[in-house]
């Protein structure tokens, strides 16, 4: 235990280098190429999260660049709904790393899943208005990032955390696009690219929704795809240039799920899901979940946010968020 009265005597005589300053390290999670650990900073006296590359990627120049870029992008977006970065460094054993604030609370993905499973405590803790407020906070952070030339590109409930005191955090800026980025950070060509419906007046085939109210199995994207299939915009799928309106599309999908507790575009597999996003029309949320008394305004907001053509969407996240405020006012 660290007490204010004896902080001076508890400081080490020699300041350790790299990851040596972090004790009690243990794994929290791992992804395709990264590792998250919890560790205690003996210099400052706090628990942090440490992100490193998995051993097989630590010497890979491309992966090192991407981790460093993720750390710098996150560090340069100081906002109440983003994670503070504490340190970026190089360790002689674990390679490049960065540390950030340890987030506690509940993943918004799990919140929606529990509501789908009729978990009474979660239903009471997260009524519709509260779920909309969480998304509203996330969109504020996205608007802040867009003003600084950063597009998230992977907005989804799984990257949103709600803290023990109601604080909201948008995580994982590893897929972010920064204006002026180098070719090293671009997606590779997608051989399965789908055509985007060319006209708003062109009739759409309806999405064939599954029977289950909210199937939570993850659709893993192909290696060359940046983003998560069920939340990607048509232009992401087609490997076209993306801007903040792509994040608007993903936020619109999150809105549908937060309201209807159902997924608007999920198909039987990734290819079918991409077809749904690019050329088919989902059932409006009020019709998909009539028992939830979803206002028609929500249908209109979702439809505009997820328009196939970027010119037909909300042109800024701020504009989308202003519509969310009108929706929240109805609850």
Please provide a written account of the structure.
With 331 residues, the protein is of the alpha+beta class. The chain folds into two domains: 4-101, Phosphorylase Kinase, domain 1, CATH 3.30.200; 106-328, Orthogonal Bundle (Transferase(Phosphotransferase), domain 1). The protein has helices at residues 7-10, 61-75, 108-116, 120-125, 128-147, 234-237, 244-260, 270-279, 285-288, 296-305, 317-328; strands at residues 22-30, 34-41, 46-53, 85-91, 95-101, 106-107, 150-151, 160-162, 168-170, 177-178, 205-206, 280-281. Strands 1-2-3-5-4 form a five-stranded antiparallel sheet, with helices on one face. A three-stranded antiparallel sheet has the order 6-8-9. Strands 7-10 form a two-stranded antiparallel sheet. A hairpin with a 5-residue loop joins β8 (160-162) and β9 (168-170). It comes from Rubripirellula amarantea. One of its GO terms (molecular function) is protein serine/threonine kinase activity.
Series of H and E elements: HEEEHEEEHHHEEEEEHHHEHHH
Helix content: 25-40%
CATH architecture level-2 label of the largest domain: Orthogonal Bundle
Q: Number of DSSP helices?
A: 11
User: Which CATH C-level class of the largest domain is it?
Assistant: Mainly Alpha
Strand adjacency order, main sheet: 1-2-3-5-4
Structural class designation: alpha+beta
Low-confidence stretches: 182-189, 220-224
Strand content: 15-25%
């Amino acid at each position: 235990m660290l007490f204010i009265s004896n902080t001076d005597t508890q400081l080490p005589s020699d300041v350790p280098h790299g990851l040596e300053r972090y004790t009690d390290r243990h794994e929290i999670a791992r992804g395709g190429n990264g590792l998250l650990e919890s560790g205690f900073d003996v210099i400052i006296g706090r628990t942090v999260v440490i992100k490193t590359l998995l051993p097989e990627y630590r010497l890979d120049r491309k992966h090192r660049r991407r981790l460093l870029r993720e750390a710098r992008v996150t560090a340069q977006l100081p906002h109440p709904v983003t994670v503070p970065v504490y340190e970026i460094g190089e360790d002689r054993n674990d390679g490049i790393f960065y540390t950030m604030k340890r987030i506690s609370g509940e993943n918004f993905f799990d919140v929606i899943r529990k509501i789908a499973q009729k978990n009474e405590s979660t239903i009471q803790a997260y009524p519709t208005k509260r779920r909309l407020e969480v998304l509203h906070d996330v969109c504020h952070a996205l608007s802040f990032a867009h003003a600084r030339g950063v597009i998230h590109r992977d907005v989804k409930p799984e990257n949103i955390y709600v803290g023990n005191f109601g604080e909201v955090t948008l995580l994982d800026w590893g897929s972010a696009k920064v204006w002026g980025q180098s070719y090293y950070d671009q997606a590779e060509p997608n051989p399965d690219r789908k055509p985007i419906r060319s006209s708003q007046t062109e009739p759409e085939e309806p999405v064939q929704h599954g029977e289950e109210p909210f199937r939570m199995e993850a659709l893993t994207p192909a290696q060359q795809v940046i983003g998560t299939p069920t939340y990607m915009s048509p232009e992401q799928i087609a490997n076209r240039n993306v801007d903040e309106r792509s994040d608007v599309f993903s936020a619109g999908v999150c809105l549908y799920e937060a309201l209807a507790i159902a997924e608007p575009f999920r198909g039987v597999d990734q290819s079918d899901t991409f077809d749904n996003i690019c050329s088919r029309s989902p059932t409006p949320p009020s019709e998909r979940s009539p028992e939830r008394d979803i206002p028609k305004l929500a249908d209109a907001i979702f439809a505009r946010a997820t328009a196939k053509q970027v010119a037909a969407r909300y042109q800024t996240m701020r504009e989308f968020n202003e519509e969310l405020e009108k929706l929240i006012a109805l609850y």
